[in-house]
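@channel sequence for tomorrow's demo:
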Amino acid sequence: MSQIMNIDIDTIPLKSEWMPIDDFISLEPVPMQRFTEDRANKSSVKKMLSFFSWEQLDVAVAELRSDSVYLGTSYKAGWVGILNGNTRKYYWQNKLSNIVPSQVHVTRYYFDSMDEVRRCYDTFDSMDATEKKCEKVYGILVRSFNYTPKSTKVVRGQIITALAAVNHFYNPSRFAPVVLKVEDLPEQVLTFLDEIKAFDKICANQSNWDQALIAAALMAFKKYGVKNAKLLAGLKRIDARSRIMNDTDNRYDGITHINEEWIVHQKLPGKGTGWEKDSGLKNCVSFALYWITKWMEDQKISQLGFNWRTTADTFFPTYAALNSFLQIANTSSDSLTSITS
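structure tokens (generated this afternoon):
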């Protein structure tokens, strides 16, 4: 049963004010802001913001009352960022609206940490829609990790299903397959940040990369390294759909097997993002990783092994356990150094 709460307007952590437009435009977005420029170019947004209306004057900003660290970046007390109104700022800043107001009406919210800012931001930016999650990936890469992607696939954030899958395979006790929660996005991007950057550099033909192949590429980069020359050569061949089919006994290299399947769709017809389906994401990722492994081992064989469907599930356990051990060892070493210093 709901209760009435008495509100003391002198103590609540928000206030309203009028702010000159130049001061508002000078503010940066909150670090979890999604891909503003992409959203601004959508026809529905153009229709709404190209012409001024009074309700557009209401914006919101966040101000930190304490120092805070978010995704490795430090923010000082007093930092101010735009919570709600970033797309309108873009339109006013670039003279895309028929009217640019001289002032905006600001609701200023006060927070003790950037995590509190994120939770508030998500109430403004309904993040359950897949399209908005895609935009969110770009915002995280640019604003939180200072990386501006180049490939259309990553710019548009069209990697989120693959991202959910690879984080599940890497840490199955932490993440469910395919189900992507917006609050997990920063952590999931951070876990595969170097791999996303490496994929962004080789993704020249976006139509050749579905979610399964993106997931396989990210996982292979994680296991073999983002600078592994042989892996890079193989993934660039996937990007180009390059096949080398000069063996009479069908003993092809692993990359040729992948490209052949993604051209003729014989083993896995009707490829999709459903998880447990015969031609679903789990089996498609396993198929690709099985042949990437054979490519890395310089093996030319004619057909899949009997256990190929378990490839994705078993791709990381030993590697992840070793990684965890090294992380603990490094932490212990740092702690010991700190004690003895």
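heads up for whoever presents: The mean pLDDT is 86.
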